[in-house]
Amino acid sequence: MASSPTDPYTQAGVDTAAGDLAVELMKSAVRRTHGDEVLGGVGGFAGLFDASALLGYTKPLLATSTDGVGTKVAIAQAIDKHDTIGQDLVGMVVDDIVVVGAKPLFMTDYIACGKVVPERIADIVRGIADGCSATGTALVGGETAEHPGLLGVNDYDVAGAATGVVESAQVLGADRVQDGDVVLALASSGPHSNGYSLIRHIITGAGIGYGDQAADFGRTWGEQLLEPTRLYTSPLLRLIAELGDGIHSLSHVTGGGIAANLARVLPKDTWVDVDRTTWSPSPVFRVLADLGGLEIERTEGTWNLGIGFFAVVSPAAADAAIAALRADGIDTWQVGVVSTGPRPDGHYEQGAKGVDGGAVRLVGGYREAGAN
Fold it and tell me: CA 178 from chain center: how many Å?
């Protein structure tokens, strides 16, 4: 039932009619993510997904992940642009599932806001739906919660959870990694959704507004920093299908930076020196580091610096993997080799996120900007 002007809930700051309108505006985008396996349509208390496809698996394992976008939403709010945050959410959630080799099945989202602005909510959900379509994920449900008095009228946060499936015998991980395996880096589209507290601190300290023109990039700072997260799920699933046992482990470079995330998918008795000379950090990272008076190496535990994913593959599969990913539009290159031999002296990252995995450090100096 729509709210009336005398509805006490409306007087308390919650507009249920606005919530209903937001659902109407997002319906078509959500439905585009539905195949025959999704039952019940949009607006139910629970999303229904036909799991009979799992009967074709010998031993299906369900993979699940949950995450948010972090303080990147503050930039979307600052410039009133909300149509890309949804893709960021899908990248943070669904791309974690493919790390174990799982195919995503379905996702749900949660949006908390100070005031429901239907068009804004619909923009966010359309972005989520577009990301779900790109990754083969059904968006089967969600919730928009209005929290007046807790959040400002223009404030919101987003979160999501997804579920996927992988055959037990095909799970990727550190146990598959062997001495001599090749470590490939997959290019990022920018900061993705990590390290934005540092980014915002730098921008504020430099006296820059998000609506200001960024001369280095030909658009506003807000537009540059809202560059959507690259989605890796579909290209990586195609790669796994093509090369099979040649793909041993994958790592999503998110919070914690480069070395820590790679170390999580290596066996305990292995080490890798990631060679900085194989790439030049993306311009956005160099410009931000300069603005903040930081050496680029000091940001390696915060930003991805141009690497969004790692793939650890057999030496025989390396060239084919690079070619396949590049054909899918993802620049890919070799950055290191897994070793079980005596580890060189020096500091290595190990034990991140509670995983007592391999040891990783970055060595050498980055290429100059624009160098091949």
Answer: 27
Cβ burial, residue 207 (10 Å; 0-12/13-18/19+):
exposed
pLDDT digits (tens, 9 = 90+) for 124-175: 999 999 999 999 999 988 888 989 889 899 999 999 999 999 999 999 999 9
Residue-wise pLDDT for 326-364, tens only, equals: 999 999 999 999 999 999 999 999 887 778 899 999 999
Six-digit token string for 35: 């195949």
Query: CA–CA separation, 360 vs 263, rounded Å?
Result: 6
What residues have CB less than 8 Å from 210, skipping those under 6 apart?
Answer: 75, 78, 79, 203, 220, 221, 222, 225
Helix (H, G, I), strand (E, B) or coil at 360: strand
Long-range contacts of 31-37 (CB under 8 A, 24+ apart): 32/129, 32/133, 33/129, 33/132, 33/133, 33/137, 33/138, 33/139, 34/138, 34/139, 34/140, 35/138, 37/105, 37/138
Question: Hey, what are 286's tokens?
Answer: 């160099």
Beta carbons of 363 and 336 less than 8 angstroms apart? no
Helix 118-135 and helix 16-31, axial crossing angle in degrees, nearest 10: 20
DSSP state of 46: S
Q: What is the pLDDT of residue 235?
A: 98
What is residue 130's predicted lDDT score, i.e. its pLDDT?
93
Lowest-pLDDT range of 32-41, 80-89, 310-319: 32-41
Specify the pLDDT at position 221: 97
E strand or H helix at 109, and its extent? strand 103-113
Alpha-carbon distance of 293 to 296, in angstroms, equals 9
The three-class DSSP label of residue 306 is: coil
Q: Where are the alpha helices (DSSP H) in 226-270?
A: 233-243, 257-263
List CB contacts of 299: < 8 A, sequence separation 6 or more. 195, 198, 257, 285, 289, 305
Which one has a higher pLDDT value, 29 or 165?
165
